[in-house]
From TrEMBL:
It comes from Colwellia psychrerythraea (Vibrio psychroerythus). SUPFAM superfamilies: Porins. Residues 1-22 form the signal peptide. This is Porin domain-containing protein. Keywords: Signal.
Length: 415
């Protein structure tokens, strides 16, 4: 049985395990069902750069299109309180995926044991605790915006981790300090214009520190992962370059090895905060991705958001950015005229993760009822040259700068 099959079997077993207890547990309300859903429409005005929610999406929205797949989803969750300190959770989210399967639709599937008021352990599939919105990233009703800023949330395709975590909580200084340690593995698809690559990560080690006060929250997070497989596009390009004779490329062997990602470590660090004051809510998040890999540049991303609530309505604005260095081919001892196609492919690969853009957003949320809300949001994105990682490209204009308008209209609910 393969690793993916084992994960699917574990998730399915936990799902079945929970439902098998329904007959005996429903009477005393130990088994609870809940759900959430979003119907989202997206319009964008670019002919060259297609909007997508994350780098894991193989579809995109171009000028003249109204798309309902990028932001529409249906989530179902089962919580089974087995005992006073032991429970099981299963969550499945139906949404647009490049490789649909029961395993991919399963976002949570874990057993949790609470030793006491301070300590708790979880085993199974959990959400990667790397974002401010980690625990409700898919529950659009839980946050004000029509969509979380792509500059921070769109670059990470991983929705879950299979492993174990331990959390320690302590009340102090009028609030709650919380420390979480987690480890495990994960896998997800990363899509380019013509290819879809499965990128697996293992040896995940992460820590999350937070302090939650009455009206403000501060979080610091850091995690390290190891890439456990070689993307096919990297392997093919490295193989092609390694076969170039020395008189055309003097160090082709060494350079080809620098394109390989398997075994490389990647670090993710973030700092985030929220502050409530009367009718105002301010939030900010900044993150940093860095790696020893030549293919993954240092990426700095962040956003700052402000919203004002007036009865059932909330008006908000967001400024978001992502920035990284672009690779320019200047290797010595290369016959660039003879190897033009290889150089072009190398530049594209080395700049795949080089996201460079900034976005200003204005939006309005209307809480129609206590469980139904709509959001209307306009994004104005200044996409910089060679910075279109977060978009899909359907032409040779992928490396040009462009200003893009994107409009979102969502209806979200919980039930």
């Amino acid at each position: 049985m393969s690793l993916a099959q084992c994960k699917s079997f574990f998730c399915f077993s936990l799902f079945t395990f929970a439902f098998q207890g329904a007959a005996s547990e429903t009477a005393n309300d130990n088994l609870q069902f809940s759900g959430f859903a979003t119907l989202g429409a997206v319009y964008s005005d670019s002919d060259h750069h297609g909007y997508r929610k994350s780098v894991g999406s193989a579809d995109a929205v171009y000028a003249g299109e109204i798309d309902f797949k990028q932001h529409s989803l249906l989530g179902l969750q089962v919580d089974w309180n087995i005992s006073s300190n032991f429970d099981a959770v299963y969550q499945g989210v139906l949404r647009e995926l490049p490789d649909p399967s029961f395993d991919r639709y399963t976002t949570l599937a874990f057993l949790r044991y609470e030793v006491n008021a301070n300590w708790s352990f979880r085993l199974g599939r959990t959400a990667p605790d790397i974002f401010l919105l980690t625990e409700y990233r898919d529950v659009d009703f839980s946050y004000i915006w029509a969509t979380a800023p792509n500059e921070v949330y769109g670059i990470i395709p991983y929705r879950s981790i299979d492993g174990i975590d331990v959390t320690y909580s302590q009340r102090a200084l009028g609030g709650v300090f919380q420390t979480k340690l987690f480890t495990g593995s994960s896998e997800a698809e990363v899509a380019a214009s013509s290819t879809i690559e499965e990128i697996k990560i293992e040896d995940i080690i992460g820590i999350s520190l937070s302090f939650d006060h009455f009206n403000w929250l501060v979080q610091v997070k850091h995690s390290q992962v190891s890439i456990s497989n070689e993307p096919q596009s990297n392997a093919l390009l490295a193989s092609s370059i390694s076969q170039v004779p020395d008189f055309l490329w003097s160090n082709s062997q060494d350079f080809s090895q620098s394109l390989l990602m398997k075994g490389q470590e990647v670090d993710y660090s973030s700092l985030s905060a929220q502050y409530f004051w009367k009718n105002w809510l301010a939030s900010a998040e900044i993150s940093r991705i860095q790696s020893a890999s030549e293919v993954i540049p240092k990426i700095t991303s962040g956003y700052a958001a402000l919203s004002y609530q007036l009865n059932a309505h909330q008006l908000y604005c967001i400024y978001a950015f992502t920035n990284s260095n672009n690779y320019i081919f200047d290797e010595s001892g290369v016959n660039e005229q003879a190897l033009e196609e290889l150089i072009h492919a190398t530049t594209g690969l080395m700049n795949f993760y080089a996201a460079n853009q900034e976005t200003i957003s204005l939006g309005w949320r209307w809480d129609i009822t206590s469980s139904v809300a709509s959001s209307l949001q306009w994004n104005y994105t200044r996409l910089k040259e060679n910075g279109s990682t977060l978009w899909l490209n359907n032409s040779d204009h992928h490396d040009v700068a462009e200003n893009i308008n994107t409009v979102f209209l969502t209806m979200s609910m919980v039930f």
